[in-house]
């Protein structure tokens, strides 16, 4: 059996002319530069971009930054859900979904297609048999019964437990990756929900009803709505739980807040993986942080040509390699 190690972190940079993201263009470049400089030696970074950058790029036009939500969900295989977020006009969601599907096809990714609508940021997997989602999955697929949705998720994802938790009140995105994060099969980080103990306890109880062995580690937040960019979508500044995990590293958002270093040291206590801070400061005011901005594909699920070329990266520049695709 092939050893599961290494992988590629994918990001996306819209064209500089994109009106919505234009004020953050330099921040997005800086984010990618920081990630490229600080990333684990086991990880590669590839950004979908029409412009050549000082970091590795795959020349492709994808006019959005939130790769997590449109990309396939990673369990023991890749599962591509329909991307139809209710916070975007339907034609825009369809267009982004079609564009990303073209990129997947162009690069020969193999994945299961699900008939369900789901943002990738709304699914948390324990690397074995359990996934956690918010009840948004029911709202987005209201022509299905709840039982049908859960059965379909179990089938698509090859899991035996699908746990549905309530979304935070007023959260337009309603993504689970701003609420919980598994760090091993039974243990998870859980947000402090800005001191809303009653809500946190209710989420923990719902999880433990189906997963009695679950253990929780409360991750502090330092949320601030100051500088929120989009009137409809809450800022994610200060939500440290929105971290990216690769095979040997946890990438934790750095917001430029007083609590950044304290939370970094706190998280380091609970993992043997490298904990790497990546600056997401102003970008986070748009409503997402480290996990939202990235898609990590482990080596064993990469297309064979990417895997082969990745293994040859001592002799080839990944930047040049991706120009071949």
From TrEMBL:
UniProt keyword annotation of Cell division present: no
Biological classification of the source: Bacteria, Bacillati, Bacillota, Bacilli, Bacillales
Keywords, sorted A to Z: Hydrolase
A Gene Ontology biological process term: putrescine biosynthetic process
Listed transmembrane segments: none
Molecular functions (GO terms): protein-arginine deiminase activity
Originating organism: Bacillus thuringiensis YBT-1518
Pfam families according to UniProt: PAD_porph
The UniProt record lists the keyword Hydrolase: yes
Name of the featured protein: Peptidyl-arginine deiminase
SUPFAM superfamilies registered for this protein in UniProt: Pentein
